[in-house]
Design goal:
This protein is of the alpha/beta class. It is built from four helices and five strands, in the order E-H-E-H-E-E-H-H-E. A five-stranded mixed β-sheet has the order 4-3-1-2-5, with helices on one face.
Length: about 130
């Protein structure tokens, strides 16, 4: 599998809004998306020894490696338009601190946004089932 795939909680409004944000601001169409509960995700992620609750994390597969939480988010930024690049300075923040903030948001995400939008049909081929 040589793709750039974002695995996200398809039942979370904040996660779905984040996918919509990425679709709107990505530089090129090199990202694909898969809901964590999809059969594709279950098969693709079965090779990885994941020891945390998948539903509480975004996962990003790139170059044969799987990244989670804040590392996944920061790995996605270069796929966005140039004006998001200053956010890459967050790499200077230690991972455990970034993930503390990530976990705080993840725990409360379903309280923040409870609805989800379906992707536009022009993007449907980029969503893996």
């Amino acid at each position: 599998m040589n793709k750039n795939i974002i695995f996200y909680d398809g039942e979370c409004g904040l996660c779905n809004r984040s996918v919509q944000f990425i679709l709107k601001y990505e530089r090129n169409q090199k990202l694909q998306f898969a809901a964590l509960k999809s059969s594709f995700s279950k098969t693709a992620l079965s090779d990885f020894n994941l020891k945390f609750n998948l539903e509480d994390s975004i996962l990003f597969f790139q170059n044969g490696k799987l990244f989670s939480k804040s590392k996944a988010v920061l790995r996605i930024i270069p796929f966005l338009k140039w004006y998001f690049y200053p956010l890459l300075i967050c790499w200077l923040i230690p991972n455990f601190i970034r993930d503390l903030f990530y976990d705080l948001i993840a725990r409360n995400r379903k309280k923040v946004i409870s609805f989800c939008e379906l992707p536009e049909s022009k993007h449907s081929k980029r969503f893996l089932n």
